[in-house]
C-alpha cells in the first residue's frame, strides 16, 4: 500500500486530558494512520488480519496443552465448592477487563500497538518498564510451561514403548528445538495465518480423543475422592495458587499486541474475537478441566494424559497431537518478545527476509529458546510456572492496569460509581496478586527441595 505524506502539524499530540477516539484507524505502512499516529515503529506487520483469524488463534492457543494441567492445579486444591465458582468468576472478570482494554487502542489520535506503550502514554516511562517487565515474565514463563508440556507429552510417548523411558530433559531439548524452528520460519503473528487451520484440526482431534477417554474412565470408576488434602495452611496456600492458575486459562496479558494486527475497526474486531474466546473457547477448556477432575478426583495427575486409560495407539496419537499443537499455540504467546527483539536488533530499512535480518533473527530466536529450554530443564515444575505467571504478572496486567487506564483516561468525567468500581477492582486484585505470588513462590521452593534441580518428572 502506498504511504501517505505525513503532516507533522496535523498530528501534534494534545496536552489536554485524554479522550478515547470513536474513529478507528487504517494502517498505512508502520507509522501513519488515517485517523491517528502509531505510538512507535515495529519490525512486524500491523492492521492486516481479519477478526476471525485472531478469534481462531485465541481459541486454539488457549485450548493448548495447558488444559491438561488444569484439573490438577485448579480443581484438586479447590474441589467443586470453591473451584467452579472461582473459575466462572475469573472468566467473567477476564472477559470484562479485556473488553475494557480493547477500547483503549486509540487515545487522543494516537494508536498503540503495545500494552506498555499505553501505560507509558498515560502514566510515564516508569510504568512502561513495569508493564514490559511483567509482560516479559508472563510470556517467558508461559513459554517455559509450553516446553515442559511438550516434553512431558514426548516422554509419555516414549514410555508407551519402553519400560525405562529417557529422562525428561532430552525431550525438553527436542521441544525447544522444534519451537525454535517454527519461530524462525514463522516470524510474526500475522504469518501464523496458514497454520491456524492445522492447529484447529489438531486441537479438535485431541480434544475429541480426550473427552471420549475421560468419559469412559469416569463411568468405569465410581468410587472417587474429591476431598481437599493437606493441613489447613496447605489448603489455604494451595487454594490461592490454584486461583492464580485460573488467570492464564483466560488471559494472555498481550491483548494490545494482538489487536494491533487487526483490520479496522480494530476495537470492534478485537471484541468480536474476544466473544469467540469467551464462549466457544472457554466452553472447551473449562469442560476439559471439570470432566478431567470428575473422572479421577483428587488423584488426578499433574499431567492429565498420564491418567488416561485406553489402548496404546490412542495414548500415542493423543500425545503426538498435543506436542504438534503446542508448537503453533506457544508462538502466539511469545511473539511480543520476538517483536521487541526484532524491532531492536533487525534492520528496519530492510526486508524481514533479507539475508542480514535472517541471520540476526536466527541468533535472536536461538538465544531465547536456549535460555527458555535450560530453565525448563532445571526447574521442571509446569504447574508452579502456571501459578506464578497468573499471580505475579497476569493479575496486574489483566485486572489492575485496565482499571488504572480507565480512571486516567476518563478523569473527572467519570461518574462516582465508576470511580468506586474501578478503585475496588484495583485494590482487590492488587492484594490478591501479592498473596497469590507468595503462595506460588512457596510452592516452587517446596518442590525444588523435594525434587532438586534437573529432576526427571
Describe this protein's structure:
InterPro entries: AA_transpt_TM. The chain crosses the membrane at residues 56-80, 86-107, 128-154, 166-186, 195-215, 235-253, 274-296, 316-341, 362-382, 388-407, 419-441. This protein has 457 residues and is mostly helical. The protein has one domain: Amino acid/polyamine transporter I. Helices cover 68% and strands 2% of the residues. It contains 13 helices and five strands. The protein has helices at 51-62, 70-101, 115-123, 125-161, 168-185, 193-220, 232-246, 255-259, 266-296, 312-345, 355-378, 382-410, 416-451; strands spanning 27-28, 32-33, 37-38, 106-107, 110-111. The strands form two sheets. It has a three-stranded mixed β-sheet, with no helix packed on it. Strands 1-2 form a two-stranded antiparallel sheet. Helix 4 (125-161) packs across helix 5 and helix 6 (193-220) packs parallel to helix 9. The termini are far apart.
Secondary structure layout plus pairing:
Elements (H helix, E strand, L loop, with lengths): L26 E2 L3 E2 L3 E2 L12 H12 L7 H32 L4 E2 L2 E2 L3 H9 L1 H37 L6 H18 L7 H28 L11 H15 L8 H5 L6 H31 L15 H34 L9 H24 L3 H29 L5 H36 L6
Parallel strand pairs: 3-5
Antiparallel strand pairs: 1-2, 4-5
Helix pairs in contact: 1-6, 1-9, 1-10, 2-7, 2-9, 2-12, 3-4, 3-12, 4-5, 4-10, 4-11, 4-12, 5-10, 5-11, 6-9, 6-10, 7-12, 7-13, 10-11, 12-13
Reading the helices and strands in chain order gives: EEEHHEEHHHHHHHHHHH
If you average the pLDDT, what whole number results? 84
CATH level 4 superfamily: Amino acid/polyamine transporter I
Helix tally equals 13
Instruction: Give me the CATH fold name.
Output: Amino acid/polyamine transporter I
Helical coverage, percent range: 55-70%
Give start-end ranges of low-pLDDT stretches: 1-39
CATH class: Mainly Alpha
Tally of extended strands?
Answer: 5
Largest sheet entry? 3 strands, mixed
- What's the overall geometry? globular
Q: How far is it from the N-terminal to the C-terminal residue, by CA?
A: 52 Å
Subcellular location: Membrane
Domain Amino acid transporter transmembrane: 51-439
Protein name: Amino acid transporter transmembrane domain-containing protein
Pfam families: Aa_trans
